[in-house]
Amino acid sequence: MKLNWVDARQSSLRHFYRQFIQLGDLVFDIGANAGEMAAVFLELGAAVLAVESQPMMAAALRQRFCNEKASEIIRIAAAPKAIEVIQIEVKQIALDSLIVRHGVPNFIKIDAEGYEREIIKTLTRRVSSLCFGAPIPHLDLALECLSDLAGRLGFTKFKYVMREDMNLLVSEWVDADGMEAILRRLPIRTLACDVFAR
């Protein structure tokens, strides 16, 4: 049977994220959007807490995953004041509060359209691994996230991936200085990449 593009991408994503997520892990999907990544995490056997602030997206997520016992969808902003700009009234919560309510995640994915820094600030304990969206045209935001993860939270190893490629693009994990140098060299047309931290 021939795989279509969507099936092939899902297969590629499962293969990629298997290096971070194991059967039975707890995963926080912050900025779950339409649920593409949440679906991948569930297929890997993880329990998934999907956080989405946009009401239509949150409703679509609930419908998509209504039969998934290992998933929970909540409509909140995972950072203080993150939603004021887009003028949607939504409850806000810190990552630490999510951990108190749901447990310590093995992996956190943060994709919040420029609010990654605000979200990372609400985390006060180190987790096994996480990734955040790094907007290259607004490099200062990505570098602030990187500095906070390395300095305040003690992450020591970093890699990055271009979203369309889904291959970690440095052969070895690098320290924060090495990751900063890589991000500074990326052309602005890159738009965004995902930075992984351990």
From TrEMBL:
Q: Which residues form the Methyltransferase FkbM domain?
A: 84-123
Q: Name one GO biological process term.
A: methylation
GO molecular-function terms, A-Z: methyltransferase activity
Task: Determine if Membrane is one of this entry's keywords.
Answer: no
Keywords on this record? Answer: Methyltransferase, Transferase
The keyword Cell inner membrane appears for this protein: no
Q: Which InterPro entries match?
A: FkbM_mtfrase (IPR006342), SAM-dependent_MTases_sf (IPR029063)
Annotated Pfam families: Methyltransf_21
Provide the protein name.
Putative methyltransferase
